[in-house]
Design brief:
There is one protein chain. This protein is an alpha+beta fold and about 140 residues long. The protein has a domain at about 30-115: SH3 type barrels, CATH 2.30.30.790. The protein is about 15% helix and about 40% strand. It has a six-stranded antiparallel beta sheet, with no helix packed on it. A hairpin with a 2-residue loop joins strand 1 (about 45-55) and strand 2. The longest helix is centred in the first third of the chain and has 16 residues, at about 5-20.
Length: about 140
């Protein structure tokens, strides 16, 4: 390493120490994060319960589908892309996980996948888009 590389490295470290850093969260962001969210991964079939306000009434709408992408980590900006087929037409919605209008997220099924983003599912028809389901193992009790 030459002197210029060392100088740049020191400057970067100093600048990073002064800023809050990309991985650190402010106290206001930490208070807005939801604590009761279970692990959500691509390949899971989930139900998203969303609050919808119509005039003076409030109701909960359920969107059930396959998680094809999780983006932006686990912080305040974290989102999931959920896909379902409705009347033969694929519908995708992007939900911010920590949004106040998300009532709860339930995991219905877990599928075995080998990709972090399942965008290839968009081009598959009904039988081709099937994924292998992970069945939870039962514990055997010996007496």
């Amino acid at each position: 390493m030459n002197k210029l590389d060392l100088f740049n490295k020191k400057q970067l470290k100093a600048a990073y120490a002064k800023s809050s850093g990309p991985l650190r969260q402010s106290s206001s962001e930490a208070s807005e994060l939801k604590k009761d969210i279970s692990e959500i991964r691509p390949g899971y079939t989930i139900q998203v319960h969303q609050k919808i306000k119509e005039k003076d009434k409030q109701r909960i709408q359920i969107f059930e589908g396959l998680v094809i992408a999780c983006k932006h980590g686990k912080g305040i900006n974290a989102t999931i892309t959920v896909r379902r087929t409705s009347q033969g037409i694929g519908v995708e919605r992007i939900f911010p996980i920590h949004a106040p209008f998300i009532e709860k997220i339930e995991v219905i099924k877990k599928h075995k996948v080998r990709r972090a983003k399942l965008y290839y599912i968009r081009h598959k028809s009904a039988k081709q888009a099937r994924l292998k389901e992970i069945v939870p193992q039962r514990k055997v009790v010996k007496k």
